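Q: what sequence does this backbone want?
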């Protein structure tokens, strides 16, 4: 792992040692669940060790393309999509505070998120210092790349249930290591191979880096899910 990810280790150890372990005779409750959101569609496994501390592991095995045309403020003849990475795995711990949770851990992703704009025929696209008309350029993609491992923190609503069915919501952020962005395009091969277009694309890429700034270092986490606990049910406050 990279340096930033390793910074979580002392914090995790401090939190774990500050929380008293469950009695030796008590069985640990196990919860399984399904989630969807910016970590993809997948499943979660939660081990409830006592009334306030839980260990959790998740796997987002199915990514998806979200249509964000309306929230992107795009002009006519344009469609915006955000491709959520496939195969996103998480490992962390949660502290329960009433019906809320504070959590943290690490995530691992095999692919990077991609924001793409698709242009209908006749759409005019300003790239660098030039203007192109579809189908000269049919799609402009921006890939947010970073190291595969990243630490994350989150706030959650809905405790992990020891028994029965419950709902949960997680909102947080992952801190990307060595982040950056790269742009690519599809369209007329002769146009894309020209020196002018390559120059314009580099200029557009530089301008986007400047506009995004430090935001390139973060990836938002927003997940909703349903969970089922089949342990002894020591915690019954996990339902909304």
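A:
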């Amino acid at each position: 792992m990279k340096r930033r990810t390793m910074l979580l280790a002392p914090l995790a150890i401090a939190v774990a040692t500050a929380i008293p372990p469950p009695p030796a005779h008590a069985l640990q409750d196990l919860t399984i669940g399904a989630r969807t959101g910016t970590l993809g569609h997948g499943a979660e496994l939660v081990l409830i060790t006592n009334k306030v501390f839980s260990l959790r592991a998740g796997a987002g095995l199915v990514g998806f393309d979200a249509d964000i045309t309306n929230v992107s403020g795009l002009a006519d003849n344009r469609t915006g999509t955000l491709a959520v990475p496939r195969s996103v795995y998480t490992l962390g711990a949660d502290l329960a505070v009433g019906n809320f949770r504070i959590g943290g851990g690490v995530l691992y992703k095999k692919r990077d998120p991609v924001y793409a704009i698709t242009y209908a025929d006749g759409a005019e696209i300003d790239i660098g210092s030039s203007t192109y008309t579809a189908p000269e350029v049919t799609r402009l993609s921006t890939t947010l790349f970073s190291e595969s491992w990243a630490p994350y923190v989150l706030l959650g609503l809905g405790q992990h249930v020891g028994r029965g069915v419950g709902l949960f919501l997680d909102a947080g952020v992952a801190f990307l290591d060595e982040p950056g962005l790269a742009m690519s395009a599809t369209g007329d091969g002769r146009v894309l191979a020209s020196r002018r277009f390559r120059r314009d694309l580099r200029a557009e890429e530089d301008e986007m880096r400047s506009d995004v700034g430090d935001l390139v270092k973060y990836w938002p986490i927003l997940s909703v899910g349903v969970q089922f606990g089949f342990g002894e049910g020591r915690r019954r406050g996990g339902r909304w």
